[in-house]
Amino acid sequence: MARQLWGRDFDIVKEGLDESQVAMFITELIGERDDLLHRQDHLDSLTKLAERTVAEADKLAADIRKEIEEESRAQAAMILAQAEKEAQELMEQKQAEILAVANKEAQEVRDRAQQEAAVIRDRAQQEVEHLVNQQQQRVQEEVKEMAQKLHSQLMAGLKGVTEQATALQAEWESKLSVSLEGSLSPASISPSPSVPVTEEPIAEMTVPDAPEEPVEKKAVLDTPEAEAQVESKPQEEEKTKAELKPQTEEKAQTEVKPKAEAGAKAEAKNDNNIFEQLEQAWGNADMAEPADKPEVAPAEAISQPEGETADKTTVVLDGDMSSATYEGRVALDILPPLSPNQLVEIQRYLRDWPGIGIIELGPGNGGYSITLSLDKPMPLIDILEQLPDIETAEERVDSGDGRDAPDKKGLKRIAITLCRTK
Q1: Whether the Cβ atoms of residue 410 and residue 398 lie closer than 8 Å to each other
Q2: 275 and 225 in one domain?
């Protein structure tokens, strides 16, 4: 048989448990189960509530995070804009300060450069004046020496002329005395006219011998008139010679003195002639049209087609040129003999050559000196030797004591010999 308890059918056995105890135990179990179920439902509710709370918290956190990010971006953009503005203002301020400092330094550099240029100009002017004074003093000394020499020669010539005149006078007097002692006719001893001054020098004048009179005319001298004429003859001869001597000396001085002055002037002119020609040549060169600038090209970069020739103004450097290069200030000492035309051509070539500037030129070292300024290293000797007017160009070792000029101590120098003009 079976019995239903708590909604379930139980079989009844012969030897079984106490029904009341089992029922109580089962009732307790059911109560615990119900309590557990109730708790489980409460926990599920709490879990769902917690899940909802967490979800809402996550959503709220996301919203807060998004809002904070937006606010942070806005603040960051504002901060960046403010920083950029401040940086721009600071940069402009620094640029203004740097520009002001640069302008100040540039002005100071310009002022120093102007002062140095003024000093260099004054020094160059003093050097030119010193050279001119030296040249003038040398020319004056040479002219004075030449004038003294010519004066000595003139005085020696005048002394010789005076001695010749004295000798001629003595010879004339002796011949006249001999002639008077001979037999003279009244006509032959008549007063002779004044001797004219000839155009020949005294040294070339000859006095002809007096003609011999026949012996039979000697008796005529015994008359008082003849004796008076004979006595007056020497006086007239003396008077004639006295008139002739100053005229002869005056003529000699007139002929010799202009020659001496002309010689002295010629000597002085010869000394200054070359520099006057140079000054005139420089002036003509400055007024003339500028020549084409010479082009420099290395040997390996030059390929000339057959049948074509290089332009006359293009100077081509050969491949075997020397490796010596020059930079900065270099002095060219052009040795005599000098030709103004050649110097003008050399100056024109150097003036038009790229990277070469002429800063000073004038007489010096017994010839002519040109001081160059080279902007970059270049084979200056090779360039100079390519010019048609230059025969040789060699580096000259400077002693370093600045004897050529006080401001040129240790300056590199190149000695140049010009080609002889035909």
Answers
A1: yes
A2: yes
The angle at the Cα of 368, spanning 366 to 373, to the nearest 5 degrees, equals 130
Give me the pLDDT at residue 403, please. Answer: 54
The answer to the question of residue 371 being in a domain is: yes
- The answer to the question of residue 132 being in a domain is no
- In this structure, the strands spanning 390-396 and 8-11 are unpaired
One domain, residues 187 and 250:
yes
Order the strands of the 367-378 sheet from edge to edge.
356-364, 367-378, 326-335, 412-418, 390-396
| Residue 326 in domain | yes
Residues 224 and 259 in one domain: yes
Query: Which of 331, 339, 341 is CA-nearest to residue 380?
Result: 331
Q: Last residue of a domain, which of 250, 284, 318?
A: 284
State the total domains in the chain. 2
- Cβ-contact 172, 209 below 8 angstroms: no
pLDDT for 365: 72
Residue carrying the six token digits 């001999």: 178
- What's the burial of 255, exposed, middle or buried (CB within 10 Å: 0-12/13-18/19+)? exposed
pLDDT of res. 277? 52
Contact 371, 358 (CB under 8 A): yes
The counts of H helices and E strands in the chain are 4, 7
Tell me which H or E stretch contains 309. none
Residue 150 and residue 268 in one domain = yes
CB-count exposure of residue 384 (10 Å: 0-12, 13-18, 19+): buried
- Length of the chain in residues, anyone? 422
- Cβ count near 408 (within 10 Å): 19
Instruction: Sort strands 326-335 and 412-418 into parallel, antiparallel or unpaired.
Output: parallel
Q: Which domain holds residue 408?
A: 299-418
Return the SS3 of 108: helix
Per the domain annotation, does 158 fall within a domain?
A: yes
Same domain, 267 and 370: no
Domain identity same for 255 and 325: no
Instruction: Using CA atoms of 163, 164, 165, 170 in order, give the dihedral in degrees to the nearest 10.
Output: 90
- Residues 6 or more apart whose CB falls under 8 angstroms from that of 245 comprise 165, 169
DSSP codes joined into one string, 170-202: HHHHHHHHHHHHS---TTTTSPPPPPPPPSS-G
- Domain match, 360 and 410 both: yes
Show the low-confidence residues of the chain (pLDDT under 70): 1-2, 6, 8, 10, 15-17, 179-323, 397-409, 422
Indicate whether 249 and 366 sit together in one domain. no
